[in-house]
Amino acid sequence: MISGIIFDLDGVIIDTKAIMVEAFTKSYVSITGKNNPPVEKFLSMNGHCLKGILNELGLPEEMYGLFRKISIEKSQEVTLLPGIKMLLEKMKNLKSRMYILTGKEFDRTDQILTHLKINDYFDFVIGGDMLSKSKPDPEGILRIATQFNHRPHQLISVGDAPFDILASKNANVRCIAAIWADPCSEDQLREYKPDFIATKPIQVLEIIDKINSRSA
User: Fold this and answer.
1) What's the distance, Cα to Cα, between the start and end of the chain in Å?
2) What pLDDT is stored for residue 185 in this prediction?
3) What is the torsional sign of CA 185, 188, 190, 194?
4) Contacts of 87 (CB under 8 A, 6+ apart)
């Protein structure tokens, strides 16, 4: 039986792609003085913490503060992805805990969840600044498993990026690749062999129901 569901945030629960691209582009141009930000590489590392992404891309740390400033200013523009509110409502009927594990800092995450009035759906939230290692390291998943007494086979994660899938595999936890925000990502995510692929949010509940029915 699935006793815990771990959701990534951006691209799974909320639509922040345009804001992220704007914040990254403006901070890149302002700090580096160049006009060719590696946007696609940046987006491909979704799930990793921002400081880790900047380090991996060899970009200046000074971009971090400006990126955060722009993102916070735009936080009221963040919206739920279609179908998410219905999924969360239906999942309240499951005897399972729900968690958020994101590379986004906790304060920004909490601000967004509060703005969207969905923080009460989740039992625990882990931001990237609460961990010593971010995805694809399994630290966040293992922390949830330990703190809330889940065994790996009782957990399932929902993510939209390779790092989400890799973190799940590193924790021996099943993963649902969420492609409802970006259907074009399916081929890329299939390369990382997720356990399931969901093209719309409600399929997460359907997948969990099937797993639970086999376990009954």
Assistant:
1) 7
2) 85
3) negative
4) 201, 202, 204, 205
pLDDT of residue 216: 62
3-state secondary structure of 138: coil
* DSSP H/E element including 124: strand 124-126
Dihedral over alpha carbons 69, 48, 100, 78 (to 10 degrees): 40
> What's the pLDDT at 71?
92
Do strands 79-80 and 14-15 pair parallel, antiparallel, or not at all (unpaired)?
A: antiparallel
Beta bridge partners of 202: none
Two tokens at 208?
């969990």
The stretches in the chain having pLDDT less than 70 are: 216
**pLDDT score of 20:** 93
Q: Which tokens in the block code for residue 83? A: 């179908």
Residue tagged 């939230």 (tokens) = 125
